[in-house]
Amino acid sequence: MQRPLENIRVLDFTRVLAGPYCTMLLADMGAEVIKIERPGEGDDTRQFGPFQNGESGYFVYLNRGKKSMALDLKNPHAIAAIKELVKESDVVIENFRPGVMKKLGLDYESLKELNPSLIYTSISGFGQYGPYSQRPAYDLVAQAMGGLTSITGHPEGPPTRSGASLGDMSAALYAVYGIMVALFHRERTGEGQYIDIAMTDSIIALLENNVMRYTVDNIVPVRIGSRHPISSPFDIYQAQDGYVVIAVANDSLFKKLVSVMKQPELAEDKRFHLDPLRTENETELKAIIEAWLSGYTVDEAVEIISEGGVPSSPILTIEDVCKDEHTKARNMLIEVDHPVAGSMRIPGNPVKLSQTPPIIREASPALGEHTAQVLTDVLNWDSKKLKALEEQEV
Amino acid sequence: MQRPLENIRVLDFTRVLAGPYCTMLLADMGAEVIKIERPGEGDDTRQFGPFQNGESGYFVYLNRGKKSMALDLKNPHAIAAIKELVKESDVVIENFRPGVMKKLGLDYESLKELNPSLIYTSISGFGQYGPYSQRPAYDLVAQAMGGLTSITGHPEGPPTRSGASLGDMSAALYAVYGIMVALFHRERTGEGQYIDIAMTDSIIALLENNVMRYTVDNIVPVRIGSRHPISSPFDIYQAQDGYVVIAVANDSLFKKLVSVMKQPELAEDKRFHLDPLRTENETELKAIIEAWLSGYTVDEAVEIISEGGVPSSPILTIEDVCKDEHTKARNMLIEVDHPVAGSMRIPGNPVKLSQTPPIIREASPALGEHTAQVLTDVLNWDSKKLKALEEQEV
Questions:
Q1: b/e per residue, B39-76, with b = 16+ CB within 10 A?
Q2: Are B179 and B94 contacting, i.e. CB atoms less than 8 angstroms apart?
């Protein structure tokens, strides 16, 4: 079987999360991803926990199926080698602060001279242009400056970061979509190009209808906890031993719910008989539902509500998710063997392609594991040239 | 200029958010997206607010640059027309409950007989297989069952939904990555395939290191508000008139911060001089920082902290984001003209491609605007055949 990105070579200068996650998505589809790392330390995430036999699980997960070259970007011989590799590559990707690659002579303008059909992607906090482009951005800053933090959390509480690093993850996803569009275009025209991805732009792009509510109705969306803006009861409710999702979006589902609750009179109640009234009297309704739920565990409640034909679910912890039969059936937790760490379970790829499924070939590389191999295989370097480069490395 | 997805025809059966956002990302890149809608009502989101001259802003934003055909999927003549269109299309995409397309005779197995190189994508709550595949899933359910809700929010508060519909938006992003990989593969081999995307899988895929902390260290990640799990002070803090992000990830940045605060002695304080100690004594440190911030507005605080070399930002509301100069410079809010609604500002596309930038050609179509045009242009139907179909529609 031909892998879909077979023969696509990616020179990957990225570190930490957004860039490595993007190139992981390319590696899963068969691209040859060559990760360029600092000699000695490598990607910062090699030092991030959790550790197994001294190897970072964070690194193993994000860098599966990649090659690693240890090259010092301050060494002119390494830069020369990289420029030779650029000629033999399809994609370059980096997530330094804007300007760093230019100082190294590795910016798009320089590299496209060597390879006009190159696809060059930069991921940064605020993008390559615009008033904030030089500001540092962590995920927390991107979520805050992209507006998402202001609408996440409870009305009485502070703005809240999402529990996952969405600034990084969404930037990675928009980047891989851009890279695939550019590869498709290049396949048909031979033309390369530059792609500029910002974490804050990516967060803004996730806001969906929150933006329209402001631009059309001049409403500034606020934090509303977990409830639905215009339907009730559609929220997270407290049961005996935890929380339950109940999702009622219309009057007929509400009738089913109150029948399950053995309080059918609520369907006729003037406060609750129509969806807009339920939303208006949401606090009272929530109190009634939680009083009823206080007699049930989460499992009991989800079962009887679902059996009554009303959408309901528990709120799974990360442990629950990892142990869930559905997660297993969907291959969303897979096992890789790392030569040092041993066996590790890492998140799978959610894109289930029938003919060219994502394949997690192997665990992450050791730092510099493929330096000599890539130079030999791709550039036909001999041992003399390899040795010369090595002697130049500090 | 050739658009990157020029000559790619997408038959789009999707409704509401995840599917329409995915095909919007294809339309932005030049694909011809033909949206198949129920006669009379169309996509549910045509009835969702906010409205401008009776037109839904939600619909206009998500369906920009698409064509609309009004076809009744219960009418055999409409199904026959769709099957003719499938032969002339590259991509089919749907987000019905698993099984619905099969009942209509429009499942992948049936359609690939008509067009073996077809790329067929299904988006659903739990995917096409696995124990939960028949369960209904709203975004709230996908966030809860994917584990994200359990780690979003404050330790003393309940689990919290993210303020944006990440179950839908992430499924759309993984789907467009899958479709582009499949299109690229087809361009090189002629082979079509089926793609199965689940909202819950997509949420699990966003959890990043939270999964590794459990699988490697057996730690079940919990809600920690907006703070950083292993660095302090890296959180959201209360100033006079709102909240401020301060992001200190190492000891030298901490020295800079306490110098800005004119409390340099804190850098020597035994509770705070090292990052792990600051995280251990995070509550005390937060109180000290917020006592200091009580003398400043958000704008003042961000300015002096940033000037001191420490990353800091405000928390922008949706209004702030929409009015921001950076948003404007990055084209993240663009204007479209709708024939009925008039001018509307909608979110832009965050993928800045230099040679083939995303182009928002026009606003969303009227319901059925292109029914006759598509049948005439693509299938060469004459007026007699068009009339016959029309008479069959209820």
A1: beebbebbebbbbbeebbbbbbbbbbbbbbbbbbbeee
A2: no
Q: Decide if A57 and B216 are in contact by the 8 Å CB cutoff.
A: yes
- Number of A:B CB contacts under 8 A? 473
- Partners of residue B193 in chain A, C-beta under 8 Å: 353-356
User: B156 and B295, same structural domain?
Assistant: no
Closest chain A C-alpha to B256 CA, distance in angstroms: 16
The C-alpha R_g of chain B, in whole angstroms, comes to: 26
User: Is residue A227 in a domain?
Assistant: no
Strands A242-247 and A312-314: antiparallel
A63 touches chain B (CB under 8 A): no
In this structure, what CATH number is given to the domain that contains residue B273?
3.30.1540.10
Picking from B43, B52, B206 by the largest number of A CB atoms within 10 A of its own CB, the best residue to mutate is B206
Write the pLDDT tens digit of every residue in B136-181: 889 999 999 999 999 999 999 999 999 999 999 999 999 999 999 9
Does residue A25 share a domain with residue A74? yes
Confidence band for B390, pLDDT divided at 50, 70 and 90: confident
Together in a domain, B51 and B115: yes
| Residue B174 and residue B77 in one domain | yes
Report the residue from A57, A311, A315 with minimal CB separation from B212.
A57
Q: Are A158 and B236 in contact (CB under 8 A)?
A: yes
Split into its structural domains, chain A has a count of 2
Residue numbers in B near A353 (CB within 8 A): 178, 181-182, 193-195
What does the block give as tokens for A357? 């499924």
Q: Which of B53, B186, B191, B318 to mutate to test binding with chain A, by most A CBs within 10 Å of its CB?
A: B318
Picking from A276, A294, A317, the residue at the C-terminal end of a domain is: A317
Pick the last residue of a domain from A297, A317, A337: A317
- Model-level ipTM above the cut of 0.95: yes
Parent domain of A355: 9-206+325-392
Is pLDDT at A67 greater than 80 in this prediction?
yes
pLDDT digits (tens, 9 = 90+) for B281-301: 999 999 999 999 999 999 999
